[in-house]
Specification:
This protein has 11 helices and no strands. By secondary structure, it is mainly alpha-helical. α1 packs across α3 and α3 packs across α5. Keywords: Sigma factor, Transcription, Transcription regulation.
C-alpha cells in the first residue's frame, strides 16, 4: 500500500499539535481555560473536547447504556458551547459544569427517544440505575468476599441520590463542594450529609450478624 508522505506528515503534525495543546493548558486553572475558550481560543476548545469528552462518556454511561445516545449528547453539548462563545458565564469548575450538562442532555434525549414528554425530569433521573464500579476505593478496601457481596447488595438498596453521591465522591474523587454543584444542592452540607448517611447505611449492611 502506497502512503502519501504529505498526508502522513499532516497526521503526525496533528498528533503533535494535540499533545502540545495539552501541555499548554494542563497547568492552567479551570477559570483561565474557560475564559480563553469563551474568548474564542480554538486551542482551548480543542483541549476541552480532548480532555473531557472521554470523561463525559464514562459518566454518561452511568445513566444510559445507549452508546450512540451518549455520544450524541456529548456532541450536542460541545456544539452548543461553541455557538455560545462570548456569551457564557464564568465557570470555576469545568468538570462539574459539564457533568450537569451531560445529565440534562441525556434526560432530554431519553425523553425524546421514548416519547415520555409528560414525565417529570426529576422522576426520570431518579429511575436511572447508577452503578458503582467494584474498583471503587471503598469496595476495594473490603478483602472478605462475603463482606464485599453484602456491600454491593447494600449499594443496590441505596437511593439513586445516595449512589450518585458515592460515585462522585469515591470513584470520581470530587469534593463535597463539587458534588453539591453537580447535584444542584444549595448547601455543601447537604452533599456531606447524603454521603455520611449512605456510608452509615452500608456499614449496617456489612455488620456481622449477632
Amino acid at each position: 500500500m502506497n502512503i502519501d508522505p504529505k498526508k502522513s506528515s499532516e497526521a503526525k503534525h496533528i498528533t503533535l499539535h494535540s499533545q502540545e495543546i495539552v501541555r499548554i493548558f494542563e497547568s492552567k486553572s479551570d477559570c483561565e481555560i474557560w475564559t480563553a475558550f469563551d474568548k474564542g481560543d480554538e486551542m482551548a476548545f480543542n483541549y476541552l473536547y480532548r480532555i473531557y469528552a472521554p470523561i463525559l462518556y464514562q459518566y454518561g454511561f452511568q445513566f444510559s447504556r445507549d452508546s450512540s445516545l451518549i455520544q450524541d449528547s456529548i456532541q450536542n453539548i460541545f456544539i452548543y458551547l461553541r455557538s455560545k462563545r462570548g456569551e457564557l458565564s464564568e465557570v470555576a469548575n469545568i468538570k462539574g459544569y459539564l457533568y450537569r450538562s451531560i445529565q440534562r442532555e441525556i434526560i432530554k434525549n431519553l425523553k425524546a427517544t421514548t416519547k415520555r414528554d409528560q414525565i417529570n425530569s426529576s422522576a426520570l433521573e431518579n429511575s436511572f440505575k447508577i452503578e458503582i464500579s467494584p474498583e471503587t476505593s471503598f469496595i476495594q478496601s473490603e478483602t472478605n468476599s462475603l463482606r464485599k457481596t453484602k456491600l454491593q447488595n447494600g449499594i443496590d438498596q441505596l437511593t439513586c441520590k445516595q449512589r450518585k453521591a458515592l460515585l462522585l465522591f469515591y470513584q470520581e474523587e470530587l469534593s463535597y463542594n463539587e458534588i453539591a454543584q453537580i447535584m444542584d444542592f444549595k448547601e455543601v452540607k447537604t452533599a456531606r450529609k447524603l454521603i455520611y448517611r449512605a456510608i452509615t447505611s452500608l456499614k449496617e449492611f456489612i455488620k456481622p450478624a449477632k
